[in-house]
Task: structure prediction
Amino acid sequence: MAKFVKTEVESQNYDYNFSSVNVILTGLIVGVIAFITTLLLNNFINTLSTVGNLATLLAAVIGFVVLFRFRIAKGFAIVVASALSLWGLALWVDGLVWYEAIIFSCLLYILAYFVFAWMARMKNYYLVILAMVLTVVVVRLVVNL
Result:
């Protein structure tokens, strides 16, 4: 006679609480990666805007992986909103001394990840997306003035 064994599979939970230390560390890591990638790619591609945009995309992918490993909820939305807000950061820090540029880059990435992770705490996903879209639009309007 066959026996049925009931096993329970536990799924991994995401952290819906606001883990500010993990988000700040992720912003710091992504800011450093974006700056270093911009420096390295600038040796091969001479257009700073293209280099900066490629560095932003690479930093977004790495940021998503780090947020996923930290089990931060809605990590994809956080990464996309941060990348869209900081699109063109390489042109903003052009002309600064390297240590000023890396500090500025890290602070902006920390601020972006922190703000969008704070918004992602809301339970209603539609409100999260609406708040993030409005914030990105306001940031892009202010930056392009």
Notes: The chain has one domain: 20-143. Residues 20-143 form one domain.
